[in-house]
Each structure stands twice: as structure tokens, then as C-alpha cells.
Amino acid sequence: MSLSDDLATLEEWLRRRAPVSYASLRPPASPSRVAEVADVFGHPLHVELAELLYWHDGTTNLPDESLQIAPDFGFIGLSDALSEWQLRCAGDSSALQDHPLMSWSPNWFPFGLDWCGGVIVLNHDQSRAGYGNVFATEPEQGSRRAEGWNSVTSLVRDVLESLHSGQARRDYQPVVDEGVLTWQ
Prior knowledge:
184 residues, six-stranded antiparallel sheet, 7 helices
């Protein structure tokens, strides 16, 4: 199955089992908006990240009722992602200043936010191993590359496996409460 097939499966699961999270999905990002963000970022967004954003440009209702694209990380759209990236690249983020373990690279583009200073990023650094990897970087733990996924596809499949089995993945159990998907 392709990433687009997996995203369609995720959307259908949300529509049927977590309707509030489903309703939080924004419309797809436009190719022109993805290109505008890529111009500011300095190079094209990774094809899988672009495909994710063409599926939906993040969610509304952050953080309470939004889709968590990974356990504890709400799916943010291009505008919020670009703002997070710019803030962190400028070094003005209190999350960066107050937490010495918090690391950042301008080659990381965020697409998930945990509201405690952590983000899920996709690594766009083609000069090193790990291009296309997805991982969290958090104030208290720094970059958690080893606990990440090797692609957006791997992340989405991991989420789908947990949703379909009802079993915990990476120590998080999917829970739907009043139509909202969360991870505990």
C-alpha cells in the first residue's frame, strides 16, 4: 500500500470511530502554498511530507480535539509549522533557551506539536544518514532520533496498526473518548 492509501484508511477510521478528530482535519494544502513554504524553508519539502499536507493541512481545534498525528503530537498545518520552524531557527524559542537538551537543525521541518515545547519533525538533511526520518525533539529529552520512524509512511502505518489492533505501540494505547482520538 502507498502512503495515500494509508492516509485514506486513516481518514475512514477517524470518520467512523473518532468523528470529532475527523472533523478537526483541515482541507488539503494547495501545491502553491506548499511551494511558498518550501521557498522560505530553502528547499522542497520531502515528498512524503508534501503528500501528508496534500491529504490535510493539519487540524483545527488545537490542542483539545485535534488529530494527534503521533502519540501526544497534534498535527499542525503549514502556517503553524513554518512559524515553529522560523522561531526555532531564530533561536528565540523559550523552549530552546530554557532547555539545554533541546536541539534544533534548520533542516528539520515540524509537522506535529505537543504544546510543551516538543515537535515531531522530518529530517531534510540530504548530506547525512537519516534523510526523511521522522522523530521528536523535546525540551526535557532532546532529539529522540532512535525512537522515531524512518519515514512518514512508517509513522502512519505504525498508527494504523495500533488503531486496528487496539494494542499499544511505542508504549501508547489509542483511546477514543467522546469522539476524540488520544494516546495514553
